[in-house]
Amino acid sequence: MKNIAYIGIGSMAEAIISGIIARGGVNPTQIRVANKSNQERLAYVQQQYGVHGYTSLEAALTNADVVFLAVKPKDVLAALSAARPYLTENMLLISVAAGVNLANLENIIDKKMAIVRAMPNTSAAVGLSATALSANSLIGTGQLQLAIDLFSSIGTVSVVEENKLNAVTGLSGSGPAYIYYVVEAMEKSAQELGLDSDTAKQLIIQTIQGAAEMLNQSPKTPATLRKEVTSPGGTTEAGLKVLDDYQVKSAFISCIEEATKQAKRMGDEISKDINKEISSLNF
Ligand SMILES: NC(=O)C1=CN([C@@H]2O[C@H](COP(=O)(O)OP(=O)(O)OC[C@H]3O[C@@H](n4cnc5c(N)ncnc54)[C@H](OP(=O)(O)O)[C@@H]3O)[C@@H](O)[C@H]2O)C=CC1
Ligand SMILES: O=C(O)[C@@H]1CCC=N1
Known about the structure:
This is Pyrroline-5-carboxylate reductase. GO terms for molecular function: pyrroline-5-carboxylate reductase activity. Helices cover 55% and strands 13% of the residues. It is built from twelve helices and eight strands. It has helices spanning 11-22, 39-49, 57-61, 76-83, 102-109, 141-152, 165-173, 175-192, 197-217, 222-229, 235-245, 248-281; strands at 4-7, 31-34, 52-54, 66-69, 92-95, 114-119, 129-135, 155-159. The protein binds NADPH dihydro-nicotinamide-adenine-dinucleotide phosphate (NDP) and (2S)-3,4-dihydro-2H-pyrrole-2-carboxylic acid. Residues 7-13, 34-38, 41, 70-73, 75, 78-79, 82, 96-98, 119-122, 173 line the site of NADPH dihydro-nicotinamide-adenine-dinucleotide phosphate.
């Protein structure tokens, strides 16, 4: 059994932890989590999942086999610099920070460590994350397999080239939020049309699950499946015409493009901060 440490215990770290524990992949007592200062949050995760919580990175990281970096991108430089003294070359570092590339992580750590840059999503909490990952050149076959196994316990895993990870972030990292956004609209509309909220919730969830399962099992394209729902002169045609009039499809495409660009911008910010830090050390 591997010892797993987390730097940062926010929504994404919690989703991964709850997923891997629920699926029996890891014993909670082998998980140590650290955040910066939020004691209430630490108390909650300790009580909820039986993991050990610390504000000391030394206490969380010593003897870890795998270290997850799960702080906001803007906090990566500070958190990883603070963690550096406790990181050793036999550890595997897994970063889920959006936009932060492997070269940036290597520059901050400045040690010969195996690093995985991964982009999961919060559906990890129910074992249904769509994760894509990429590794640096120092990773051994066993460590890559370990990362794949950990993420496989919370959903699907795709190994991709690193230059695809910002697009993955815009598509599936942020993706659950797009679906929730649509559901918010469906719920509001159901309420306005006089459906009770429990009934509406069940209808909406089953509709989404059913459509997802059709996409999964059917050889037909999404466009064909859509056309099969759309009777000529019927209700769907009338509804979809409104979506087309509002250019909703283009809006979704722009949404994913903009999220992808934002991942790059966040990564560029980190590069700037790292370069500033390096040049200040050279003076
Ligand atoms: N949320 C999502 O859907 C997804 C998020 N991600 C990525 O996951 C990462 C975390 O996001 P999310 O969980 O939403 O963020 P949250 O803001 O929920 O959590 C961030 C955590 O980082 C901790 N932290 C901040 N600075 C430090 C530090 N110097 N040392 C130790 N811990 C620190 C915070 O501690 P404290 O509270 O004490 O300040 C907090 O526990 C981000 O990089 C994001 O890009 C990736 C995929 C999906
Ligand atoms: O919104 C964000 O920046 C993070 C990355 C992907 C999902 N949430």
